[in-house]
Amino acid sequence: CSWFLVGIGINVAHAPPIDSEGRNKGRISSCLFDYISSLENEEEGVTQSKELVTQIVNTLSEWIDTTQHLEKDVASECVIAEWSQWAEFGKEVILRDEPTGSSYASVKPIRVEPDGRLRVLRRDGKEVLLCTEYLF
Question: What is the dihedral of CA 66, 83, 31, 38, to 10 degrees?
């Protein structure tokens, strides 16, 4: 039996405040309740969130069913190609987890590598690979 875990964090009814200093550097939070005009109360938001989760799981299951015959490398290329259509490569972003002195480093994403790492261009012109292996 094979298992996998997909984690998606979604604020449903409340957008928690985030400190203007520290790791998140004042990044604004949001929640579904603020953007879905049909939501009238928290209970309805929970119901809508459950429906959203069901749609995500069903879509993911369908994708797995249609791609399980593919070789691992081919499946990886398909995921990266589709995800890359939505990414904003070349747009400067600020890294929140790597302070450089009193400020945070900014980079420009270039592409996603086959192994899932993100290739970025630093301000000094050097390309580096980013990954989140420290989370595991």
Answer: -60
